[in-house]
Amino acid sequence: MIPIYRPLILIFLFLAISCQVKSISDSKDQSELKSTLLENEPSSQLKQEELVGVYFMPSWDTDPDPNRDRDNFWSCLQNPEDCANLKNPAIWGPRGRVYNRNYPYEGPYLDRKPVKELKGFYKRDDKDVARIQLELMKSYGIDFFAYNWFYGRHYYYHLYFGPQSRIFYPKGWKIDSSRDGRVAVPGLEEWNEQLEILLEVNAKLPEKDQLKWAINWCDDSDDRWMNWLKIGSPDEMARKANYPGEKPTKELYLQVHEKITRRWTDSYFNRKDYLKTEDGRPIVYFYFPQDAEARAAFYGLELKDLLNLSQRIAREQGFPGIKFIAVMAGPMLERERAYGLPTKWQANNSNRPWEGGRYVNRLLLQEYVPRLKTMGFEGMTGYVYHNFFEKDNRSYADMRETYRGHWTMWSEQFKEDPNFEYQVPVAMGWDMRPAGGTWPQQAGFPSEPYKDNVHSTKSTFQAKLKEAQEVSLKYRNTKGNTIMICCWNEYLEGNHIEPTVGHGYDYLEAIREVFGGK
């Protein structure tokens, strides 16, 4: 005889199993639904993981009169007669930039005037403007700025001379007390006035409102290189710019590089607002490393020798190292090799290098990039891509196409390498007409003026940002999550997202709508 409770137990057991199966099924459905939502709508949660950076280009005074200030940005936007860029014989030839009936002046470019909230054509040292700039970047979704950082190796100065006493010089390094404290190792920062103001203002903001920043080392000027080689030359000795024994030797070159790194470690890397990796390594962007490589080769050095020296110094100063990111661009066609990326500078006369030389052993971009990791770089990004193989930028639609080509090529090339990242770059356009046009030639005319009409709108820029975000998400597992935007204020190259009379806040709004505000 079967007890009466046995059927009830079986019924309860059946119901329990059914509920458990349904619960598992519901849980699986919800999990799949959640996964689908995340895949289809990355902007809700994943975009918060995006790190958005923007390049910041300093301006400087071009007036020889110390009692006047002629900002190189604002002067070129308003009046060609005041624009030093247009009169520079080193880039435009002896006549400077030539305008005529066939190549007329098309300015002034007053649509690039900053909005009144930024005081229009503002002064570089205006702290109120710096505060507004930082607040705008932060509130519209920008996480950090990479400041274009320039250094003149050839400058000697005197620490006992009041106006020069504040110039950085590592503690304990040799000076000549009989010559008013003349430094034994030359070199100083150039155009860092805005950086000092930005950092001073940033430090006074509440910590949660502070913006991160990084150095973008621009060691790309041939003028600076020639000034370095002129140290101790007959002309410099004749005008008493140098003392006997001051020569641009290999030893001094390395000492100057150490001084550059010490400036970073002693003044910048210790700051709370400096951009660092999760393991505490400061990040340094390196604009066009091929220029530094070519000049180091003059001394029989490789670029990795310089980066290794910086790494050693950083560790000696208590940092776990430095993460170097190369900022790259360049030609990709064989017929353009003459304009390729040089790997060596060769003097015309090895006994008189200050008289000039040439850059040789040029590589195409796709030949150069695979060498970056062996030099000591852990990633790469771009500033402005002007072409992708046969495709030139003649419009913003073209630019979007060339960028997609680069994004795919470099993301795919490094997707299996967990130790090298590709930071997806974005540019809002290109128009170099205020500085004379693309690209300056000694005849006084630009060689490719058709590239000076690459103009975006809010909608096309926003579409490009979304495309960049999709690439970043696709390769995130191995390539990090940084997107680099060019630029905050490249006014002479038509690459500026800072609010202006012409486009208002359009570009900042596009960034916030894609990546979210902070």
Describe the protein in words.
By secondary structure, the chain is an alpha/beta fold. It has a single domain, classed as TIM Barrel (Alpha-Beta Barrel), CATH 3.20.20.80. 36% of the residues lie in helices and 14% in strands. It contains 17 helices and 18 strands. It has helices spanning 5-40, 42-45, 72-78, 89-92, 127-139, 193-204, 222-229, 234-238, 250-268, 289-297, 303-316, 365-368, 372-375, 396-414, 458-474, 476-479, 506-515; strands at 51-56, 144-152, 175-176, 182-183, 188-190, 212-218, 283-287, 323-328, 344-347, 357-360, 379-382, 387-388, 391-392, 421-422, 424-427, 429-430, 454-455, 482-486. Strands 1, 2, 5, 6, 7, 8, 11, 14, 15 and 18 form a ten-stranded mixed beta sheet that branches. A two-stranded antiparallel ribbon has the order 3-4. It has a two-stranded antiparallel sheet with strand order 9-10. β12 (387-388) and β13 (391-392) form a beta hairpin. α5 (127-139) crosses α6, α9 (250-268) crosses α11 and α14 (396-414) runs parallel beside α15 (458-474). The radius of gyration is 27 Å and the shape is globular.
Which features would summarize this protein structure in a list?
single chain; 518 residues; alpha/beta; TIM Barrel; 10-stranded mixed sheet; two-stranded antiparallel ribbon; 18 strands; 36% helix; globular; disordered N terminus
The proportion of residues in beta strands is: 5-15%
What gyration radius follows from the Cα positions, in whole Å?
A: 27 Å
Class based on secondary structure composition and strand pairing: alpha/beta
Please count the beta strands (DSSP E, at least 2 residues each).
18
What does the largest sheet look like? 10 strands, mixed
- Percent of residues in helices: 25-40%
The CATH class: Alpha Beta
CATH topology: TIM Barrel
Q: Mean pLDDT, as a whole number? A: 91
CATH homology-level superfamily: Glycosidases
> How many domains make up the coordinates?
1
First-residue to last-residue Cα separation: 74 Å
What's the number of helices? Answer: 17
Indicate the overall shape. globular
Quickly give the CATH architecture: Alpha-Beta Barrel
Uncertain runs are 1-47
